[in-house]
Automatic annotation (TrEMBL):
GO terms for molecular function: glycosyltransferase activity; nicotinate phosphoribosyltransferase activity. Pfam families: NAPRTase, NAPRTase_N. Residues 12-134 form the Nicotinate phosphoribosyltransferase N-terminal domain. This is Nicotinate phosphoribosyltransferase. The lineage of its organism: Bacteria, Bacillati, Actinomycetota, Actinomycetes, Mycobacteriales. InterPro entries: Aldolase_TIM, N/Namide_PRibTrfase, NAPRTase_N, Nic_PRibTrfase-Fam, Nic_PRibTrfase_pncB, Nicotinate_pribotase-like_C.
Amino acid sequence: MEIRDDLASTALLTDQYELTMLAAALADGSAHRRCTFEVFARRLPNGRRYGVVAGTGRLLDALPRFRFGERELEVVAPFLDRRTVDWLRDYRFTGDIDGYREGELYFPGSPILSVRGSFAECVLLETLALSVLNHDSAIASAAARMVSVAAGRRMIEMGSRRTHELAAPSSSRAAYLAGFDATSNLEAVRNFGIPGAGTSAHAFTLLHSGADGAHEAEAFRSQVAALGVGTTLLVDTFDITRGVATAVRVAGPELGGVRIDSGDLGVLARQVRDQLDALGAKSTRIVVSGDLDEYAIAALRAEPVDVYGVGTSLVIGSSAPTAGMVYKLVEVDGVPVAKRSSHKESRGGTKKAVRLARSTGTIIEEIIYPAGGPKPDPGGSDVRELQVPLVRAGEVLDDPPTLTESRDLVARGLVSLPWEGLKLSAGEPAVPTTFVG
C-alpha cells in the first residue's frame, strides 16, 4: 500500500534504533514473541505532586496512520535488509492497548499505557507514544497547576510564539484539557474546537503614531469600531493611567476589558481597578499577561484580576518540558522481565491499577497489582479501576472520550486530591502508590 499524502503517515515519527532492533529480532526469530510494554513515569518532575495524562486522543489518532508507504520505505531502506523492508511494507499494529483515561491524574509508577502484541509490532510504537504523551502531559500538568491557583478566573493560552509551530496546537489542546478556557492559536481552534481569543498587540497601537506623536485614542477607536465595545484594549503601550482613561473615553463605561502586559501586575491591577471604577467602568474586566507562571498567578490571587493570559511558561511545561515517561518491556511470553539499572529500575509483569478514595471522594491511595491476580481488597474505601480498553486487535475502539469529557475528568481529579496535593511547594506525591503481588 502506498501512502500518497506526506502528512498521512506517522511511521517516521520514530527513532532509527526502533527499526534496527526490529531487523535484528526478525533475523534471530524473536520478533514474534508475545510482549507487554508499559508507559509510566518513575518519578514526577521536581516540585510536582501529581501529573495529568494528556495526549492519549492524539496518540490514538496517529496509530492507524503508523504505516510504511513507499515514501517512508525509501527513507529506511538504506540501513535495513530486504526482509525488514518487506515486513514494514505490510505492517499495521494488530495488538491491544489499555490505558488511563485522558485527563486522569497519575503518580510515580502509574501504568499509564499497556501495549500488548508481538515484540516487532509493539517496539515500533515506543517513540511515537512517548513523544506525544511526554509533551502533552507535561503541558497539561503545568496548566492544571495554573488553573488550580487561578481559583476560577478565566485562563487564556497564548504561547504559540514561544514554541515550535507544529507543537503549538497540541500545546493549546493540552492546556484546554487541563482547564484553560481559550487559546489564541487558530489551528487549535480548527483542529480541536477550542474557543479562540485575541484582540490586538502593541504594534496596532504604535501603527497609529505619526509625526505629530502617538495616537492611542485613534487605535482604540479603530479597534472598538471593528470589534465592538466588548473588546479588550491594551492600555500599557505608553502610560497606563492615561491609557485607561483614553480607553474608557473612547469605548464608554461598557468597555469589555483592558489588558496589562508589563510592570508590577499586582500594583497596576489595583490602580487600574480603582481608576475604572471611578470612571464608571465597574464591569470592565482586567486581563493580565506577561511571563506568568503558576507562582506569579498565585501571587496575584488577592488582586482584582479577572483573566490571565499565559504563554511561555505554559508551552515549556513551566520548567518541566517533559513528563519523564518511559516505555519499557515488562513481559515476554507471559514471563515478567525487568530492568535493574541504577536509578532506572522497572517492575516486571503486566499490571493493572485501582485508586482508592474516601466516601467524600478524596483520593487516599493508588494500588498497582499483577494483571492476572485478584483485585486488591479496598478495605471499605471506594475503589475505581484506572485502565480502560483503548485498542483491540489493532482497532481503536469506538466512542473515545471527547475533549470536553477529558477536561471534566481533570477538574474532578483536582477536586479529589488531598488539600496538600495542590500546594506549589516541593513535597511528596499527593497520593502514595503501592505495588502488590
